[in-house]
């Protein structure tokens, strides 16, 4: 079986070399692109398994690249950017990114995000049949198919959003702490992951809640964590 192919889109040569050296050390195949035009050509030509994308490229904004790639591909896109505001993260996720890593980042954090992405791709269809469908009010999760429906309409969730929703659904009524959730989702409990968790929870709520400011399904326990309510 071929090793996963990862497309690294980064104009800073030092950061690009750090990422590609890390990938090579851990037996990932990779292609590298220094700008948006090259990134799109590489994505079309090589059909990578995952794209690591910097947003601040010299020829076009990374958000536009996400939108272009999403017009024809569902390849997971992990943004790696110095833009650290929640609004920047939400814009990237809304455009179709699957995960967001803020610079500066550690090698271990990057590898953890990749493992989560590949685990999500490999886990689709791995749930056992007897408990493969979860229903809570108008929300339905088909674990076996890896699909989520709200009022019978299928939702598009990123891998992280889907994993979060599944984790909460399998613990209905229980308050899950930030530490527990981040370890389950990213395999770690870095402070940055708690910040990322808040962003992903906001984008998830936008998709499953009629009124995200007054949530029906996911309750926030300030300073502690989150709980899925039984509707």
Structure description:
The chain has 231 residues and is of the alpha/beta class. It folds into 2 domains: 5-123, Response regulator (Rossmann fold); 129-228, Winged helix-like DNA-binding domain superfamily/Winged helix DNA-binding domain (Arc Repressor Mutant, subunit A, Orthogonal Bundle), CATH 1.10.10. Helices cover 42% and strands 21% of the residues. It has 8 helices and 12 strands. The chain has helices at residues 13-25, 36-46, 62-70, 86-95, 107-123, 159-169, 178-186, 191-208; strands at 5-9, 29-33, 50-53, 77-81, 99-102, 133-136, 139-142, 147-150, 153-155, 176-177, 218-221, 225-228. The protein has a 5-stranded parallel beta sheet, with helices on both faces. Strand 11 and strand 12 form a beta hairpin. Helix 2 runs parallel beside helix 3 (62-70), helix 4 (86-95) packs across helix 8 (191-208) and helix 6 packs across helix 8. The longest helix is centred in the C-terminal third of the chain and has 18 residues, at 191-208. It is globular. The mean pLDDT is 89.
């Amino acid at each position: 079986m071929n090793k996963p192919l990862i497309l690294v889109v980064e104009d800073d040569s030092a950061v690009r070399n750090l990422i590609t050296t890390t990938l090579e050390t851990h037996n990932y195949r990779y292609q590298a692109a220094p700008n948006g035009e090259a990134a799109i050509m590489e994505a079309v030509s090589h059909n990578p398994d995952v794209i690591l994308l910097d947003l601040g490229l010299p020829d076009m904004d990374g958000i536009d690249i996400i939108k272009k790639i999403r017009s024809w591909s569902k390849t997971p896109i992990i943004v790696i950017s110095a833009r650290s505001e929640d609004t920047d993260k939400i814009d990237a996720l809304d455009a179709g990114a699957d995960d967001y890593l803020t610079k500066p980042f550690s090698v271990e954090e990057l590898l953890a995000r990749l493992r989560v992405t590949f685990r999500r791709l490999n886990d689709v269809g791995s749930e056992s049949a007897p408990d493969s469908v979860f229903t809570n009010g108008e929300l339905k999760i088909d674990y076996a198919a890896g699909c989520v429906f709200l009022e019978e309409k299928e939702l598009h969730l990123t891998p992280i959003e889907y994993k979060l929703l599944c984790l909460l659904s399998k613990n209905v009524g229980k308050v899950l702490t930030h530490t527990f959730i981040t370890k389950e989702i990213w395999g770690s409990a870095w402070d940055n992951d708690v910040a990322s968790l808040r962003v992903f929870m906001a984008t998830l709520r936008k998709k499953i809640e009629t009124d995200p400011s007054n949530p029906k399904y996911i309750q926030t326990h300030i300073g502690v964590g989150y709980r899925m309510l039984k509707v």
